[in-house]
Specification:
The chain has twelve helices and 21 strands. It is of the alpha/beta class and 438 residues long. Strand 5, helix 3 and strand 6 form a beta-alpha-beta unit. Bound molecules: ligand LLP.
Amino acid sequence: MPNTINQNIKPFNTKRNQQGNLEISGCDTVSLAKKYGTPLYVMDEVTLRKIAREYKDAFSSYKKVNMMFASKALMTSQIAKILHEEGFGFDVVSGGEIFTVHNANVDMNYATFNGNNKTSDEIELALNLNVGRISVDNFYEIKLLDEIAKKKNKIQKILLRITPGIECHTHEYIQTGHLDSKFGFDLTQIDEAVNLIKNECKNLEIKGLHAHIGSQIFETQVYYDEIGVLIKELKRINEVHNLNLDEMNIGGGLGITYTSEDCPPSVYELADVILKSIKENCAKYNFDEPVLYIEPGRSIVGTSGVTLYTIGSYKQVPKGRKYIAVDGGMADNPRPSMYGAKYLAEIANKKENETFEKVTVAGRFCESGDILIKDIELNSPETGDILCVYNTGAYGYSMSSNYNRVLKPAMVLVNCGQSDIIIKRETYEQLVQNDVLH
Ligand code: LLP
């Protein structure tokens, strides 16, 4: 089976140009840093469209599939526009994500609203904009949603979010499918939830089940097992409650290659297991093949993105580490300090054949834990060099903050030698615009 983008560390067309500078999709990263400033998020449109097409291709033999990009990984109006052009819908988890997808002129019927504590305002917005599905997470929400839908005289199509009881080997904070989770109904609560919907919620129409087992997943067996649980439950619910549920949303989670230690399966291997599980479990439980929703986030946008920083100060601890500090850090990428996440980086403005030195890349924020990369071999790093950190497209910008009142970086989209700003760099004026001074 062919390799896919999520198995690469670098964007599709990354190389050294004649000057020895790092070039991504025909754009010299050193020139990008000069033109747009640093820190700078760079997204490669070619890589992004390529992985989106790999997903579509891998699942093309299954006619009833809906690709839903998990917006939480990276949501900007332009990213939504591109992925919608590639045939993706959207998993959205907040009013802000709903509003951004809508702002990109996406037909909101292609969106699913997820989350364990959606507010009334967010639910109203979702209903006003005709969001296609709402994945209902708990008993409180069933009643709240029905009330709001009744007020608006609407019938809302829903999925029930369940915890299938599948443990996967990933960071504890990003595991979600195990039983002791804040998300969704326990398997033993499904009948009570379905009864409540059927008997008391005239403005809700249940279409199927939703689950998500975790993120940065490297094994495919967990998907096989998850689908087994979902199909078994769909069949059982239809029999017990005389319903005709035929939709199954299996969440996201496919891993990517941050460093050579990571070995995620390809999108084709993932699709193979998912489609095999559907076939075998449908045969086992005598169930018609359901409508499939899949919600990848990280594996769609991760590899397309890099972050460019400028190296400033440095410090040699006597008989210890050498630190080099960049002009960003935990506010533009909190993953290393939150999860101990590892990244690969290169000096963008130096040829690969110079002298390498082991250093630790520190951020600029006032916290000892603000270390971007521990112990990495870099090409004679010096003040003024541009550092390119790979694989920052997912959960970097989307989890960024204004810690220390540092401005959020700009994001630029590159494509075959062309570069365009898709998020402007924040300004000090914007930083204080919501401050109220008495
Ligand atoms: N669907 C649901 C219901 C989810 O909760 C998530 C991620 C996804 C889909 C997309 O999962 P992905 O394909 O991106 O793995 N901030 C963490 C990741 C948190 C993921 C939360 N849910 C990180 O930076 O690693």
